[in-house]
Amino acid sequence: xxxxxxxxxxxxxxxxIRDKVFLTLIVFAILVMGxxxxxxxxxxxxxxxxxxxxxxAAITFFSVLIAVLVGGRLVxxxxxxxxVFIILAKPVRRWEFILGKYLGLMTVLxxxxxxxxxxxxxxxxxxxxxxSAYLLWALLMTCFELAIVTATxxxxxTFVTPVASAVFTFAIYVVGHLTRDLRLLAAMSPSPxxxxxxxxxxxxxxxLSNFNIRGEVVHGVVLNPQTLVLAAGYAVLYTATxxxxxxxxxxxxxx
Amino acid sequence: xxxxxxxxxxxxxxxxxxxSGLSMRRVEALVDVSLSxxxxxxxxxxxxxxxxxxxxxxxxxxxxxxxxGTVEVFGRHARDARVKSRIGFLxxxxxxxxxxxxxEFLRLTARLSGLSDRETGDRVRNxxxxxxxxxxxxxxxxxxxxGMLQRIGIAQALVNDPELVVLDxxxxxxxxxxxxxxxxxxxxxxERGKTVFFSTHILSDVEMIxxxxxxxxxxxxxxxxxxxxxxxxxxxxxxxxxxxxxGKVRKALEHVGQQSIRSGDSLLVTVRGExxxxxxxxxxxxxxxxxxxIVPRRKTLEDYFMxxxxxxxxx
Lengths: 255, 315
Prior knowledge:
The complex is a heterodimer. Chain A has helices at 2-17, 20-35, 47-71, 74-80, 83-88, 94-127, 136-157, 162-176, 179-188, 192-204, 214-218, 225-251.
């Protein structure tokens, strides 16, 4: 079982790293991080913090972009190009296929995150910005956030086109950062319909703001380990649920 | 007929209905198909385009579910992973991961089929040799021709040394040399006791290698039988080629035959039986003609298939 899942994951990884779009995004992310130096004169002595903030935000944004763009066509492309016929004709269970594709893309994302992080630290070194390993906590949380975003993209890619999948996933990513506002809306709205819908969305959509600790690490705020563990557990559970739904949808599919 | 208990594939009243378009129009791809394929036989599955061949193959491979009826492969459910480890499959017009080299792709399929790394190396090398693709082993498949992709497709279907090989249009896109090679591969599989189930449009290939055939028309399995039963071997007509003929004699011969074709000073006359052959020979002799050839024509699978499709259409 593990061998088959790893086989599919390895193939997904190989596909991504041979894709020029993916490599272009990484290069572009590093360029954006480097360009943070341009705004340093405007930062009133907070240059290093702004640099770190822009760097971490760029890494997160481009990682999410890769997850949305690559994840959105992950399963759909296999079905459209009928490569899935070859794979599913082998002793590969459908859930193994979904898990393999997911893990393959997650490996790609973690690897690209690693490359971008290395680029980020190199830029900080070159520009003389004091770099600390403490920033890595924010990137670890980004990994958990990516786990959910990728699982969302994979779910959509089992039944809608890549463009629709990218749009839906990105919409969920944006709303996922506003779920606290949804709760506020539910509390403040006099309309029972708005209350119900806001509360429903609050509980159903992922609460991605849990994973944003960039401000804290940049400003050196001491992190609460319990919050981190809870966020990690939440990511694992939410991702597992999405993958289960993906497997269910994909398992019922006729080719 | 072989022993029915030794069935590798068995379907019972298998039907598949698709819904098509906005109006959800019903399209019956398969209707009550009951079929049994025995161990060690080469079974040719024939039918016009859109007859339901690929639908049946997809159900056999667990790629889609029947609307009703049952299907068993090696006595188990078609989607059972244990069954799939005993099957090799080539889909119609296969498309592979174009960013992989041929060797990488075969290694991937070997891994998914459960082969160990040690087994994989030798198996992949042998298969590349079998399908004559050793030279392209390290090339990315994005540059491959249709024929090359078909060869790689056949190689991946054989990567797990399967007991049952299911091939959907395996001769598609191949030149005559390639077709001959595929026929040889299939014949080799029979010698090794494997079961082969394949669909094709190329009837001469079926005639050369199949033990039994099934004909599907508009989703219904209208005929299943051994090739020797279907093609009884009886002479359908006789072609007589006569040369050196004068005008009057040629006209007389043209009247004797069911049909005649002129080529230079030769005339090919197609007649029904021996009596007409004698008549042609007598006329040719009297007119100083020479008999060049007398060739009996037996019923081909194509003749049978065309007549069968026509009959089914009329019904």
